[in-house]
Design brief:
It contains 2 helices and 2 strands. By secondary structure, the chain is of the alpha+beta class. It has a domain of 46 residues. Strands 1-2 form a two-stranded antiparallel sheet. A hairpin with a 6-residue loop joins strand 1 and strand 2. The longest helix is centred in the N-terminal third of the chain and has 8 residues. The radius of gyration is 21 Å and the shape is elongated. The relative contact order is 0.19.
Length: 66
């Protein structure tokens, strides 16, 4: 048995709801990207990649992309 059915307008309202975090400083929506930094190992001259997820908004956009 189905638990209940939502109407099309209820589904549309649920899907159009804005999700995610907003920046407390500028009020813009925060986007998460993967930032990859290449580092050379001094012992055996091998390149390694440091990967981390970074939150970006208008406040720190220039720092990350430059």
């Amino acid at each position: 048995m189905s638990k209940g059915k939502r109407s099309f307008s209820a589904k549309l309202a649920h899907s159009s709801k804005e999700r995610g975090m907003t920046c407390p400083e500028c009020g813009e929506k925060v986007q998460f990207i993967k930032h990859v930094n290449s580092v050379k190992n001094t012992q055996n001259d091998v390149w390694k990649f440091n990967k981390n997820m970074v939150a970006i908004c208008k406040c720190n956009q220039k720092e990350i992309y430059s």
